[in-house]
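As a warm-up, study this chain.
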Amino acid sequence: MLKSINIFQSLTSESNSLNPNNRTELFIRSIKKNQEAKNFILLCFENHSRTLRHINNICSERHCSVPYAVTKENKVVYSIYGENLGFNQTVDGQKLKPYNCQTSLSRQLEYQSLLTSLILKHPSITNEAVNNVSKGIISFLQSRFSENGKSFSDILKKNIGHYFWTNGRASFGRISLDSIENIDSDEVLKSLIRTLKTGEIAQILAIHDAVGRKILPFHECYERSKYLSIANTVRQDWFDNAQLRGRKCKQDPGVPCETVGLLPPGSVADQSVKVQARHRAIDMFERDEKRTSHPEANDYYDNLDTRNLLFGAGISGTTGTLLQSAEAFGQLHNLELKKQYCAAIAGYLVGGGMHSYHEVMAVAEKVGVPYQPGSSIESLPELLLKNDEFQKLATEYYDVAVLGSLHWRFNKSCLPSHLNTQIRKESQ
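Now compare it with the structure written out below.
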C-alpha cells in the first residue's frame, strides 16, 4: 500500500466492510467525524457489467484504487487497479469523461490553491514554527542595532528596504507601496520587527528570506555559519542559472492579480482569504523546453514529467533560502515544526502564485521533510491534517492529496532528458 495512504488512514476510524456480499471483499474506512457520508464513487464489476457505487472511503486493505473518470458534476470516479482498463462513456445512466492528463493537472491546480488558501486563512497552524524563526531574527536585528546603532539600520534600509517599501511595485509580502526613500532607517528597523510579530505569513516569510539572504552573510556570527551550512544542499548553483533552470520570461507577464494560488486570474479559491495584488511568477515565466542540459536539472525535470506534475516557475530557490534562515534563526528541533514551517512556505509561495507545491517540496525534502512526489499528506503538519476543512478538502481531492501522482497512466508525452534533442548541451 502507498505510504501516503497509510498516513491518511491513521486519521480514520476502524475498518468496516462495505457490503458482506461484495465479491471483491473491498474493505473501507470511514472518514473521521463524517462516518455516514458517501464521499466516493467506485466503479465496480457486477454480473459482468460496470456499475457505480457510493462508498465512505476509497482506502483499501487489499486493493489499490485509481482515478477512472469524472462525472458531469466533476466528481472523480475511482476503479480498482486492473479493472480500470478500457472506458465506458455511460455507466448506470451517468455520462462520464475519461480521467486524463489534463484532468490531473487541473485538479492539481485547484487542490494546491485551496490547500494554501486554507494555510493562509489559519495562521495558527504554522504559528509555532514561524514565530520561532521570527524570534531568532528579531534577536539578531536588535543585537546588531545595539552594537552598531544607526549604521546598521542604514544597511537594512539600503539592502532590503526596497523589498518592503516598493515605490508602487506589486511584489508579494510588501509592507507598503511607498518609496523606501521616504522612510527613516530607524523606522525601517522598527517596522520590520513589528511586522515579524503581527504581520501576515507572506510579509513575515519575505522578511525571513531577505534578512537571511541580504543581511546575515555580511556578519561573522554563529547564525551565519548555520545559514551557510546547508546552502549547497537547498539552493544549488543550477537553481540560479537562467540557462539551466528551465524557465524563461513570457512575452506578456500579465497584470497584478489578487487570485489565491495558481488558478487563472479572476478565479478565487477561497473568497474569505485576502491576498495582496501582486505579480505572480506563474504569470511571468514559462517552461524553457530548450534549456541547457545539466545532470541534476535533467533528473528533476524527468521526475516532473514522469509523474505529470505542475510546472509553476521552476524549482524554488526561495524555499532554499527560507530553509537556511530557519536553520540559522529557528529552533525547529523536531519534524512537526519543520512541517509547519514548510506549510508556511507553501502558503507564501504556492498561495502567492510563485511556485507549485512540488517545486517547494522537492527542496524541503532535502532537509528531511517527508514528501511523496505529487501528494501532500506525509509532508503536512498534524494541526493541518486534523483540521475539519482539510479533511473535507483531502476527501474531495483524494486523487491528488493522498494518491499523488504515482498512479497516472495518462502522462503527457515528454522525452526523458537524455533523449531530448531540443535541450542544449552544457558548454564545456
